[in-house]
Amino acid sequence: MATALITGAAARLGRAIAEELHLDHRVIIHYRNSEQAALALVAELNRRRPDSAAAVHSDLATAADCRQLAETALACFGEISLLVNNASAFFPTPIGNADEQQWEALMGSNLKAPFFLSQALAPALAGSRGSIINLADIHADKPMPAHTIYCAAKAGLVMLTKSMARELAPGVRVNAVAPGAILWPEQESEGYNKEQILARIPMQRSGDPSDIARTVRFLAADAPYITGQVIAVDGGRSLNI
């Protein structure tokens, strides 16, 4: 059975992706701060199918962290054929108030960690003819007010997806999923008004985490000739930003 490593998988979209992939993968749940939630999820998945889930911790702050995570994850089940770079920081950084620490947090989680973790796992993924799926954002292309650093980081992740797809082919496929209004931020912020966003979505509703999870599973399991692509799962919102 194939093995998937999902970063930031203890809650929200990461959890939904892990549960969906668990249907036909062993899953490795990466967490940073959410140890209790990660261990509870692993226990639940192992009740459904014994020896099918594990949890690993990493701050993902440095290239060394990423290399260590890759080694620890590979040791869980002996192989990895899917990497889902889902872990992400998200908060506003209005120009004039943004600082270097915010830059490091947003660029680090959304761009630096996906690169160095992908690089560390590339040999294992090539050996299993596996794939990488990055969680991008529709705002990688259409900027969100007051979120300049976040949008720039996600734009970098989109180019990283395309560049890695070219460089790692044919052994590893690399794609991205760009969510729209799926889960709302835990704290509403400038440029992210729920009512205004919903009014401009052609489908006239927000999506569900399962919409993202099923798309990830499709790219991983049922799309052997798709690489270097970014699939927007947004109810048409990117048509009307």
Characterise the protein shown here:
The chain is of the alpha/beta class and 241 residues long. The chain has one domain (3-239): NAD(P)-binding Rossmann-like Domain (Rossmann fold, 3-Layer(aba) Sandwich). Helix content is 44%, strand content 15%. It has helices spanning 12-21, 35-48, 63-77, 100-127, 148-168, 194-199, 209-221; strands at residues 3-6, 26-31, 53-57, 82-85, 131-135, 173-179, 230-233. Strands 3-2-1-4-5-6-7 form a seven-stranded parallel beta sheet, sandwiched between helices. Helix 1 (12-21) crosses helix 7 (209-221), helix 3 (63-77) runs parallel beside helix 4 and helix 4 (100-127) runs parallel beside helix 5 (148-168). The protein is globular, with a radius of gyration of 17 Å.
What labels would you give this structure?
globular, seven-stranded parallel β-sheet, single chain, alpha/beta, Rossmann fold, 241 residues, 7 strands
